[in-house]
């Protein structure tokens, strides 16, 4: 479900054909009052239907790209705000969807990637969930049976018509995007390779002008704020510069993200790339493990997408994430509530302790239980590290000597997503 934006920019609903009689003043006032209250609860509503409606779009490529998933969620929220706000202004009337520039950019991204979501199916799912929540709110707010019937009658028509109009608007936008997209063939080919479709190396090389019979490292760069998308160009230039002349392939994955592959006869060293990207204030990066040939091109990219999804899923502030460093955490945190229980049961009181204690213990384990190496990595005195490690181990429910793997994994989860233990489980 995607498509509407700020109601301020929509054309007056009176310009649309009205398909049902206007509500009475009493019903209109009731609808307006309820919508005003629900406008402050939009995030909870979006939480209820965003994921189910996304799954209903039935496209694995869309589900695999965290940037597109986030964009879809943002547009879902806009759709909801559009309908609520319109019903504050003109209760119970037909609401015209507005295809904003942001929506157009999103549709262009889907078309260029060969992604054709089932918008009708997504709206059907979202409408079903939204209607049930709306019904509960109405029953709770309106004790008068006649008033309740009046509100439900007119809003049911408004919701259904809004869904129908939105699907039509999205299809029209998709058609316009398909007619005007000149780069669709190249992006579609990359999408096919990335998704695992059979592909001859020489065909891929010829179409993309990029050698496959080499080592590859895939990166995903993205920004959280669409208004800062211009920073991606600067970051790409920095990646090219830091890559030391290695071949690079860059694809516009969405309005807020870019896919990059670096290749060479030897495994690309991303030390300088990571350093430059980590210093950026706006652009975030995820990198896959290196791989060779067409399969390496594909697998490294899939790793990078998984790392990006992990960071977004956990609400992490990390600027640079290598999948090799978080693969275990990715598996552990697919179930956020389970990850929360694992961290708390493993670390116990250490969860609430000073960050320096947890960092010392984690570095100590990662350095093979060498205090000297840990001190060098932390730029701290050896005695300081020893004290911190000892204190952290005292606080931890599971002692590091009993199960270092569990302790390190729990510490890593907490390092990537510090709020995982303070956020109530879903």
Automatic annotation (TrEMBL):
It comes from the Bacteria. It holds the Pfam family HTH_30. InterPro entries: CdaR-like_regulators, CdaR_GGDEF, PucR_C-HTH_dom, PucR_C-HTH_sf. Residues 1-20 are annotated as: Disordered. Signal peptide: none annotated. Residues 357-411 form the PucR C-terminal helix-turn-helix domain. Residues 206-309 form the CdaR GGDEF-like domain. Belongs to the CdaR family. This is PucR family transcriptional regulator. It comes from Streptomyces venezuelae (strain ATCC 10712 / CBS 650.69 / DSM 40230 / JCM 4526 / NBRC 13096 / PD 04745).
């Amino acid at each position: 479900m995607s498509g509407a934006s700020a109601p301020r920019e929509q054309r007056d609903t009176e310009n649309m054909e009205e398909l049902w009689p206007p509500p009475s003043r009493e019903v209109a006032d009731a609808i307006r009052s309820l919508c005003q209250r629900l406008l402050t609860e939009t995030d909870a509503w979006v939480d209820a239907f965003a994921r189910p409606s996304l799954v209903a779009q039935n496209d694995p490529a869309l589900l695999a790209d965290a940037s597109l998933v986030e964009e879809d969620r943002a547009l879902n929220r806009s759709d909801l705000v559009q309908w609520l706000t319109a019903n504050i202004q003109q209760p119970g009337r037909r609401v015209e969807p507005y295809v904003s520039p942001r929506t157009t950019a999103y549709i262009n991204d889907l078309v260029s990637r060969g992604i054709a979501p089932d918008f009708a199916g997504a709206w059907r799912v979202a409408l079903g969930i939204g209607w049930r929540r709306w019904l509960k709110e109405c029953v709770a707010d309106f004790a008068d049976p006649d008033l309740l019937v009046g509100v439900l009658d007119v809003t049911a028509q408004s919701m259904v018509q809004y869904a129908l109009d939105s699907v039509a608007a999205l299809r029209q936008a998709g058609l316009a995007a398909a007619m005007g997209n000149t780069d669709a063939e190249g992006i579609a080919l990359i999408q096919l390779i990335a998704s695992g479709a059979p592909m001859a190396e020489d065909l891929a090389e010829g179409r993309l002008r990029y050698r496959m019979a080499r080592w590859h490292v895939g990166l995903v760069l993205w920004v959280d704020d669409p208004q800062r998308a211009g920073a991606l160009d600067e970051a790409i230039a920095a990646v090219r510069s830091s890559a030391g002349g290695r071949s690079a392939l860059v694809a516009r994955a969405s309005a807020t993200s870019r896919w990059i592959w670096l290749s060479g006869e030897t495994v690309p060293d991303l030390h300088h790339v990571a350093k430059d990207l980590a210093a950026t204030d706006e652009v975030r990066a995820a990198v896959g493990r290196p791989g060779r040939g067409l399969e390496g091109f594909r697998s490294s990219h899939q790793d990078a997408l998984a790392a990006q999804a992990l960071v977004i899923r956990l609400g992490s502030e990390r600027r640079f994430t290598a999948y090799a460093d978080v693969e275990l955490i990715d598996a552990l945190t697919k179930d956020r509530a389970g990850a929360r229980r694992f961290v708390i049961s493993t670390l116990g009181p250490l969860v609430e302790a000073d960050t320096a204690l947890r960092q010392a213990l984690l570095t100590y384990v990662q350095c093979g239980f060498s205090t000297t190496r840990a001190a060098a990595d932390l730029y701290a005195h050896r005695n300081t590290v020893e004290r911190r490690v000892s204190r952290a181990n005292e606080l931890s429910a599971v002692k590091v000597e009993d199960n270092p793997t569990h302790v390190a994994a729990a510490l890593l989860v907490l390092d990537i997503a510090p709020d995982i233990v303070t956020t109530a489980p879903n």
